[in-house]
Structure formats: structure tokens, C-alpha cells
Amino acid sequence: MSEQQLKEQIISGGNIPRHVAIIMDGNGRWAQERGKPRVFGHQHGMHAVRAVVEGCRDVGCEALTLYAFSEENWKRPAAEIKVLMRLLRHYIERERNNLRENDIRLQCLGRMEKVAPAAREAMEEAMEYTSSCSSMVLNLAISYGSRAEIVDAVRALGREIATGKLDPGDIGEEQIAEKLYTDGLPDPDLLIRTSGEMRISNFLLWQIAYTEFYITSVLWPDFRKADLYEAILDFQKRERRFGMVKSSV
Ligand code: FPP
Predict the structure, then answer these.
(1) Pick from 78, 105, 110, 162: CA 20 to 30 A from residue 2's CA?
(2) Does residue 73 have an active-site annotation?
(3) DSSP bridge partners of 140
(4) Does residue 102 have an active-site annotation?
(5) Distance between CA atoms of 143 and 129, rounded to whole angstroms?
């Protein structure tokens, strides 16, 4: 089926995932297969980033979250970190106009204070530049770790308790969710991981309680709109029960 036919099938199927999250994996292996350094894979991964942003926007998703750089990624060789930060900055500088034209708001999730100033400033500027866009949110998880996010949320709640603003007995799921970096966004409906790995890797642990997983063996630099659409079509066929039983049984 062509890309266009896949897209039409998704739109006519209704039940579009409101929020898609992606663990972009396999850049290093893709480069290795070609006898190139790992960063070559990251550079080619940018084509896939553009494809999924456009693809999610085209079918009407409200949010797309990309796991671009984890807390654990700080342990990679300094040269690789430098290239990843440069790619992020270039992506943001090059795409910010395009994002605004397509009414996409950019948001970054993670401990941004650890990010190099040049990249951080570019991100902050682009977030401001797209702040009034409302058709879709593009979340880049950078310097992100889900446990760290939960730690930050617990600290924020603790501060409110210490100042008497909050009673511990009033803490429920909603109060915790409000303190996460994803406050205001629906939980992901669909989580895609490329390169065949079956791990969560400290990504959105709280938010994926009822998320549908889709694992593909495609390596990230090869991932294109048609692959995204296949994942969404697969999602649309699933029966989501959220712990309940089927209403007809
Ligand atoms: C995983 O592949 C990928 C990453 C750690 C980085 C992903 C980043 C990009 C595609 C570039 C910047 C992104 C944006 C959103 C502008 P890996 O290196 O772990 O691959 P491997 O498992 O094959 O070694």
C-alpha cells in the first residue's frame, strides 16, 4: 500500500492515537552495518525525525514525544555527545519556522540544566517562538530519565507540604501527574521502539500505564512515514480495555 493509502486508511479508521511516543533506537547498528562511525547513524536519524513529525501531524495526533537523549546517554563518549547536541541544535534552528508554519509547539522534557548553553538557548528560543501553536505538541525528551522525573515531582510535592500548601492526604494520581514534565498532555496511546529491542529504558514510566507497545525491527535511520503509519494501523486494530472486561461479555 502507498504512503497516501495508509494515511487515508488511518484517517477513515478513526481512533487516532492522541499521543505517540517513540524510542528511536538502532542508529549505531545502522552505521556499523555500513562500516561507519556511530555518529553517521545519528546524522541519518534526522530524516526519520522529520518523517515522523510530519506523519503524526498529517493524521491528526495531538502530541509526539521523541526520546532524543537519555540521562544515561551522558555516559557515552564525549565526541558522540557533542555530535548529538549539535544535531539537536541544528534540527531546532532549521525546523523552527517549519514547526510554526505547521502549528506545532515545541517542548523539551528533561533536566535541561545539564545541556550545553548553545543547545539550551536554541531550544528555549524555539519553544518561545512556537508557544502559541496548538495543532500538535512535539516533545523532545532530552537529558531525560523517567525516574529522575518522578524524583523531581516528589521534591515539588514535598516543598508544597513543607510550606503547608498541600496536605499529604490530598495527594492522588492527578497531583503526581501535574508535577511531571508531561503535565497537561494526554498519556501516550502508542509507544513505538525501533531496532527490535524490547526494553523501556527509563522512558515515561508513569505515563505508559495503559499504553500500547509496537516494536519494529526497522533501525531508526530507515524509519519513514510508511513505518509510522503501519504502527498506527496496528494500534487501531487493538482492543484497549484499561483493566476492564469487554462490554459485550
Ligand atoms: C539510539 O541509537 C539513538 C540515540 C541515542 C539518539 C537519537 C538521536 C537522534 C536521532 C538525533 C537527534 C534527535 C532529534 C529529535 C533532533 P543508538 O546509538 O543507541 O543505536 P544502537 O543501539 O544501534 O547502538
Answers:
(1) 105
(2) yes
(3) 66, 108
(4) no
(5) 22
